[in-house]
Amino acid sequence: MYGSESGSVPEDLERTAFRRAEKKYKLYYEDTYKSSKKKRKPKPVDLSEVLDFNSILESYYQNVELPHGVVPLRCGFDRPVFSLENRPGFYFIPGALSVKEQCQWIKESLTSFPQPPNRTNHNAFYGPINDLFIAANERKVLVADGGSNSECDPSVSNGGVHGWKFFEEHEVSSKGSTCKSVSASVLLRKLRWSTLGLQFDWSKRNYDVSLPHKKIPDTLCQLAKRLATPAMPLGEEFQPEGAIVNYFGPGDMLGGHLDDMEADWSKPIVSMSLGCKAIFLLGGKHREDPPIAMFLRSGDVVLMAGEARECFHGVPRIFTDGENDEIVTLQRQFSQEDDFSVLEYIRSSRININIRQVY
Asked: Which residues contact 263 (CB under 8 A, 6 or more apart)?
C-alpha cells in the first residue's frame, strides 16, 4: 500500500481535500469472511459534520439560531430558501417538491426521459432503446440482431435499434447462448444518465445542436422556472434548454466536477433530488479547498449560479438501507397508487434531474 514504506507520504496526504472527503463518505463494507455482498454490512461513517437542512428548516420555523454561515434568503419565494455565506450563488430549498411531484418526476425519469431521441449512456453500444423500463418489467432481453445465426432474428423489435432488438425471455432461453444478449433489467440498473432538450455530447463536452432532440416537457420547464427564481438576476426569467438526468444505484457515486459548458453562469443549474437520501459535497474553486458536506433528500432542490458555478461538487454516497434512505413517504405513495415496479426501483436508487439554460 502507498505510504507504508519509511519516508513515503501517507496516501491521504497525496489526495486533495475534495478526494479525502469523497473517501470519507464513500460506501465501504465490513470485511467479513465468506460473506456475500447482499449480506455485508456497510462500514460506519461519521456524519456529524454533514449539514442537515431538515433540521435547519425546523430551527428556522422555531426561530432558533441557525448554524454558522447558513443564512435564510429574503426573496419572496413561497417557501424558505437558504444560502451559504462562503459560497455565493448557492441556494438550498429543502422539501421544495411535494410527494406527488416527486412520484411524478420519478416515473417520468424512468419511462419518458430515456426515450429516443433523448440519449442515454447505452446509446454508444446498443443504439437508441425504446421502452426500457417496460421491457425490464416484462423480463425481456435485448439481443444482437443481424448475426450469421438465423436464430438471432427476434420477432419483437424495440422500435428502431440498429443491431439490437428485444426478445421475450423464454424465446431467448430456447435458442441457447449463440447470440449476444443482455436482460432489460440489467440495462435498467446500469442506466446512468439521460439527456433532455439540447443534447450534451459527452465525448466533446459540449452541446451538439445537430443531434435530434425534443424540447424539455412544458410542465418541467414551468417547474424549473419557478424553482430558479431565488437565484435569477432581477427581472430575468430562467429559460430551460437542456437537462441531464442522473441515475444512482447502491454504491454509485458522482466524482467531483464542474458544470461549466453553459454560456451564461449567472443563470442557475436547477437540481432536483428524488429517491434515496444522498450526501452532496460542495467544494471551492480548487480541489484543494475543503468541501462542505450536506444531506440531499427526495424533494430537495439545489440552485447553483454565479460564483457557485465555479465550485467543484459531487455525490460520494447514497443511502439505500431502510434505516437511512428516508423514502417512507415515497414508498407509501407508490403503494397507494399500486405502482410496484417504480417502487421496487426507487427502494435502492436516487435520481437527480438538473436543468440548465444553455445559451
From this structure: 358, 359
CA distance 266 to 340: 41
What's the pLDDT tens digit per position in 171-206?
776 655 567 889 999 999 999 999 999 998 877 888
Neighbours of 345 (CB within 10 A): 23
Query: For the CA atoms of the chain, what is the radius of gyration?
Result: 22
Residue 275 CB coordination number (10 Å) = 27
Does the pTM of the predicted model rise above 0.85? yes
Question: How far is residue 349's CA from residue 277's CA, in Å, rounded to a whole number?
Answer: 9
Q: Which set of grid coordinates corresponds to residue 237?
A: 426569467
Residue 71: closest CA among 92, 52, 50, 55: 92
127 in Cβ contact with 163 (< 8 Å): yes
- Which letter does DSSP use for residue 280 in this model? E
Instruction: Give rounded-to-5 percent helix, strand, coil for the chain.
Output: 25, 20, 50
Q: 273 near 243, Cβ under 8 Å? A: no
Gap between the terminal Cα atoms of the chain: 47
